[in-house]
From TrEMBL:
Iron found in the keyword field: no
Listed Gene3D superfamilies: Nucleic acid-binding proteins, P-loop containing nucleotide triphosphate hydrolases
SUPFAM superfamilies: Nucleic acid-binding proteins (SSF50249), P-loop containing nucleoside triphosphate hydrolases (SSF52540)
Source organism (scientific name): Kocuria carniphila
Protein name (Swiss-Prot/TrEMBL): Probable DNA 3'-5' helicase RecG
CDD domains, alphabetized: DEXHc_RecG, RecG_wedge_OBF
Domain Helicase C-terminal: 533-687
Pfam families noted in UniProt: DEAD, Helicase_C, RecG_dom3_C, RecG_wedge
Keywords, ordered alphabetically: ATP-binding, DNA damage, DNA repair, DNA-binding, Helicase, Hydrolase, Nucleotide-binding
GO molecular function (one): hydrolase activity
Domain of life per record: Bacteria
Chain ranges of the Helicase ATP-binding domain: 300-473
Length: 755
């Protein structure tokens, strides 16, 4: 089994040295102590890697009295006053006016629009370096939307000024606690002066540096933190962008190489086996994508290297059929296959689907079964003791060829006779330890197939899932009906729109259909809002001058009361489902909904991965702007699973200019999950490709852009494969091994394998 790389202390050099060797100060309030406390930064490399979040580009410094209207300029000034007011034409927007002076008797008003950051960062008494273009207004100079950087004193800006008076680009760092940009800047500048950066060995091979026209490591660090020009910091960023991609791709290539070197039993398909009989009895035709991926998997299972494949496909693309065909190929060779599902509801659904799909082949020990078939066993935590004991015996003896279960599968007492394939469904819901625990059950390296219904852009797949081969299902099986999605904005429409939402639910129920209603929160019976409609709560929030996201998010408990009071739904059978309920209650509720015994299911996002209910044709999401695009798409995928026309209503109380509205419009515009994945990246401005940006060693990836850097990541991947093919253990690339140890720490390792 592939092992995760650990930080390599044997090759510790300058970058791994403690900051205290280069920056003095041991008091609790010293910069070194604050760097450790607030940012987790303790070494030279961690501080050098703490990149500025932006740069302020400057011109020549001037005094306020010398400013000329229409000419972009820079000046150092002190904040004398600051005030914020609402705009008369749009009370939801605000203006912050800052009056500054430079000690010569001249002053200037600078206005910031909706600048909560400026209001916070520019209190009275603050000195800052401002850049902008002053304009004449009613005979006086003023400025709108100036760029600025806080400085300790007016004289400190000379550190960034050339002999000609031009100000170099000034780095602005992510701040935390008492660590302001000036304080971080002083620490970094001191480190640049005291540390011998020229002694650093570059982790990128020289021939790659030349081909990519990249600056060396020492110069890149200097230009990152103290650039003398715009071109300098841009070249430094290009260098670190490639380094980040190359280091990660090297680790992933090493992991692929290690995994491929593990011995595995060849498990070729049999012409007269269960797989061929299953295929012959299929009541539908496989899509082109299912056939292509099936052939890839079939060849890998027959090979001598363990398969390690990610199967991604939109909701309803037929991933389960592909997985079942792989499992049957394993069973045909005398092995076992296990499918790990994140919830009992989903495990039960997979079990029922597999048994129904196999028919007599799943009942070898029954009178109406096929004696040449294979037993399918379900193992979950809520099984009765006798049933659980029987399942464990079937698994250990090998009588069960296919095993479906939840986390119960990875418990110590579960023993497989010959586990040949581990299938992990909705793999992002499992930690690396859980996935490895299932593979460890084999006693040897099994084939692995992980599945996700969350479409992944190619660059993200190469970066986050780079140790896996990726297969994609883009087509939907025949017979699927489209889902029509509409945004219902209650802030800009009258109460008739809300009444129409509930009336539509009644119409679907009257036609024998079922309805999902999704809320962001569970709520509390003891604290239900005193409103009889969603719009009433919105109007009350507006009267109270609520800013931000508007009213408190809708809850399951409150919606149950509202919906039960609707004239069109008074006779409807309504139930609630949420995460605080007992697992048995949740399972029973989903089963009743699947059986058609519930008309309206009011739920939180626990249904995101849930049972198939082909009869559900309407989904009403309340306050959907509180969900991400991927989650909205996954939730919407609960409907449209049968022959009925399906509708999804995104009922929002947010204002029309709320940033979440852009996400809702995107979801309403398409049902293509891959298109939405690209939109999601753009709307989130990408941020950290490996997740939430953190500080210090746990900062993850900060340089790579999944929208911009596909070609770069591809080149880095090819370079990494060459390095690993020639030096699998990186014995000749110790500096690269050390870089992997610094970047791919334990936290990032877990995220890499979880995705």
């Amino acid at each position: 089994m592939t092992t995760a790389a650990q930080p390599v202390s044997a090759f510790a050099g300058l970058l791994d040295q403690p900051l205290t060797r280069y920056i003095p100060g041991n008091s609790p309030t010293s910069t070194v102590k604050l760097l450790e406390k607030d940012l987790g930064v303790t070494t030279v490399g961690e501080l050098l890697d703490y990149a500025p979040r932006r740069y302020i580009r400057r011109g020549h410094l001037q005094l306020l009295g010398d400013l000329v209207a229409g000419e972009r300029t820079s000046f150092v000034a002190r904040v004398e006053s600051s005030s914020t007011r609402r705009m008369q034409r749009d009370p939801r927007r605000s203006l912050t006016d800052v009056i500054v002076s430079d000690g010569t008797g001249a002053s200037l008003k600078i206005t910031f629009f909706n600048a909560y950051t400026a209001q916070k960062e520019l209190p009275v008494g603050t000195h800052a370096l401002f850049t902008g273009k002053p304009e004449l207004y009613r005979g006086n100079l003023s400025m709108t939307g100036a760029d600025y950087a806080v400085v300790d004193t007016p004289d400190s800006v000379t550190d960034f000024t050339s002999q000609s008076g031009e100000v170099y680009p000034i780095p602005v760092y992510p701040e935390s606690g008492k660590l302001t940009t000036p304080r971080i800047t002083r620490a970094v500048q001191q480190l640049l002066l005291t540390a011998d950066l020229d002694s650093l060995t570059d982790p990128i091979p020289h021939h790659i540096l030349e081909r990519e026209k990249l600056v060396g490591l020492a110069q890149a660090y200097r230009d990152l933190h103290r650039p003398e020009s715009v071109d300098a910091f841009q070249k430094a960023q290009e260098r670190f962008r490639y380094q980040e991609a190359f280091v990660l791709q090297t680790e992933l290539a090493r992991r692929r190489h290690e995994h491929a070197s593990q011995p595995v039993e060849e498990r070729p398909a049999r012409a007269d086996g269960l797989l061929s009989r299953y295929d012959a009895a299929l009541p539908f035709t496989l899509t082109d994508g299912q056939r292509t991926v099936g052939e890839q998997i079939q060849a890998e299972l027959a090979g001598t290297a363990p398969m390690n494949r990610l199967l991604q496909g939109d909701v309803g693309s037929g991933k389960t059929v592909v997985a079942l065909r792989a499992m049957l190929q394993i069973v045909d060779t005398g092995g076992q296959a296990a499918m790990l599902a994140p919830t009992e509801v989903l495990a039960q659904q997979h079990y029922d689907k597999i048994v129904a799909s196999l028919g007599p082949l799943a009942r070898p020990d029954q009178l109406d079964g096929d004696p040449d078939g294979t037993k399918v066993v379900l193992l979950t935590g809520s099984l009765p003791t006798a049933a659980k004991r029987a399942a464990l015996l079937d698994i250990a003896s090998g009588a069960a060829g296919i095993v479906v279960g939840t986390h119960a599968l990875i418990q110590e007492k579960v023993q497989f006779a010959d586990l040949g394939l581990a299938v992990v469904d909705e793999q992002h819901r499992f930690g690396v330890e859980q996935r490895d625990a299932l593979r460890d059950k084999a006693g040897h390296t099994p084939h692995t197939l992980v599945m996700t219904a969350t479409p992944i852009p190619r660059t993200v797949a190469m970066t986050v899932f780079g140790d896996l081969d990726v297969s994609t299902l883009r087509e939907l099986p025949g017979g699927r009906r489209p889902i029509h999605t509409h945004v219902v904005g209650l802030a800009e429409h009258g109460p008739s729109w809300e009444r129409r939402v509930w009336a539509l639910a009644g119409e679907h129920i009257s036609r024998g259909r079922q309805v999902y209603v999704v809320a962001p929160k569970i709520g509390d019976d003891a604290a239900l809002p005193p409103f009889d409609s969603l719009r009433d709560s919105l109007l009350a929030a507006q009267e109270q001058g609520a800013d931000g996201d508007g009213p408190e998010p809708a809850t399951v408990q409150w919606l149950e009361r509202l919906i039960s009071a609707q004239p069109e739904l008074r006779d409807a059978r309504i139930a609630v489902l949420h995460g605080r309920q007992d697992p048995l209650v949740k399972t029973e509720t989903m089963n009743r909904f699947a059986a058609g015994e519930i008309d309206v299911l009011i739920s939180t996002t626990v249904i995101e991965v849930g049972v198939d209910v082909a009869n559900a044709s309407l989904m009403i999401m309340v306050d959907p702007e509180r969900f991400g695009i991927s989650q909205l798409h996954q939730l919407r995928g609960r409907i449209g699973r049968g022959e009925h026309e399906s509708t999804c209503l995104l009922v929002t109380r947010s204002r029309p200019d709320h940033p979440g509205r852009e996400r809702l419009a995107a979801v309403a515009s398409t049902t293509d999950g891959f298109e939405l994945a690209e939109v999601d990246l753009k709307l989130r401005r990408e941020g950290n490709i490996l997740g939430a940006s953190q500080s210090g060693r746990k900062s993850g990836l900060r340089w790579i852009s999944a929208l911009r850097d596909e070609a770069l990541v591809t080149r880095a991947r090819e370079d990494a494969e060459v390095v690993i093919s020639e030096d699998p253990q990186l014995a000749q690339h110790t500096e690269l091994l050390a870089a992997i140890g610094r970047v791919v720490d334990e936290n990032s390792q877990a995220f890499l394998e979880r995705g």
